[in-house]
Amino acid sequence: QTVVTQEPSLTVSPGGTVTLTCASSTGAVTSGHYPYWFQQKPGQVPRTLIYDTDNRHSWTPARFSGSLVGAKAVLTLSGVQPEDEAEYYCLLLCDGVRVFGGGTKLTVL
Amino acid sequence: QVQLQESGPGLVKPSQTLSLTCSVSGGSVSSGNYYWNWIRQPAGKGPEWIGRIYTNGGAGYNPSLRDRVTISLDTSNNQFSLKMNSLTAADTAMYYCTREGRGAYWGQGTLVTVSS
Question: Are B78 and B28 in contact (CB under 8 A)?
Answer without folding.
Answer: yes
